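Supplementary Methods. Inverse-folding protocol.

Structures were first reduced to a discrete structure-token string of length 204. This string, shown here, constituted the complete conditioning input.
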């Protein structure tokens, strides 16, 4: 049986490379953030959407999701980065595991997520179960043990800022992709996140 999980969706970025808010980009007519929330709700009863204090997503986030507004960096009108967004969300999570998702995954597929969930829980001292892409861990489309929070806080207190930096010192298990070549291609494709107008052209 799967352990209980919650979902955290990060939607507090600046979308500077895209030049417009990625969360609101429509894929097949639906804003990306709304689509991500709908898929998340199929996987878990509690879905937290962490956004920056600058954005109002109340019209695209379903009522059943819990919106968390994270504070901006002191003296700057900038968000504090995905690691801080994750920490804000984690503080609310009560389940043993959490699925962390970016809001800019246009090929997110709930059946694949369901299959990946069957790989939970990995061995006890593992704090995350993540896919590996060409460039290393894909931290914004994977599973974390909720009690990784102290380790994350400690990493931040020591000046750490990036997911990759934190994960390099953590015990992480790799999500096993399917042996079936078509399914494996779908799994790899699901990790595509659209950051630029060029990326967007690839999916339209
Ligand atoms: N809550 C929260 N989410 C963030 C923050 N920064 C990035 N994200 C989210 O993390 C995911 C990946 O973000 P990136 O593409 O790396 O950064 P971005 O700021 O959205 O885009 P760029 O400005 O082009 O780098 C997206 O879902 C973002 O919304 C943040 O400070 N807080």
């Amino acid at each position: 049986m799967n352990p209980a999980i919650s979902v955290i969706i990060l939607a507090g970025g600046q979308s500077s490379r895209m030049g417009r808010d990625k969360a609101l980009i429509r894929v097949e007519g639906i804003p990306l953030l709304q689509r991500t929330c709908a898929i998340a709700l199929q996987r878990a009863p509690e879905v937290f959407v962490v956004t920056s204090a600058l954005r109002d997503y109340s019209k695209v986030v379903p009522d059943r999701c819990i919106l968390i507004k994270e504070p901006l960096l002191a003296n700057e009108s900038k968000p504090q980065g995905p690691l801080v967004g994750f920490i804000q969300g984690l503080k609310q999570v009560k389940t043993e595991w959490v699925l962390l998702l970016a809001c800019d995954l246009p090929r997110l597929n709930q059946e694949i997520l369901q299959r990946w969930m069957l790989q939970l829980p990995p061995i006890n001292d593992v704090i995350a179960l993540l896919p590996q892409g060409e460039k290393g861990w894909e931290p914004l489309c994977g599973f974390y043990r909720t009690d990784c929070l102290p380790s994350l806080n400690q990493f931040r207190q020591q000046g750490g800022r990036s997911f990759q930096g934190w994960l390099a010192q953590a015990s992480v298990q790799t999500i096993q992709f399917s042996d079936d070549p078509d399914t494996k291609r779908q799994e790899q494709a699901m990790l595509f996140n659209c950051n630029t107008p060029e990326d967007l052209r690839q999916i339209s």
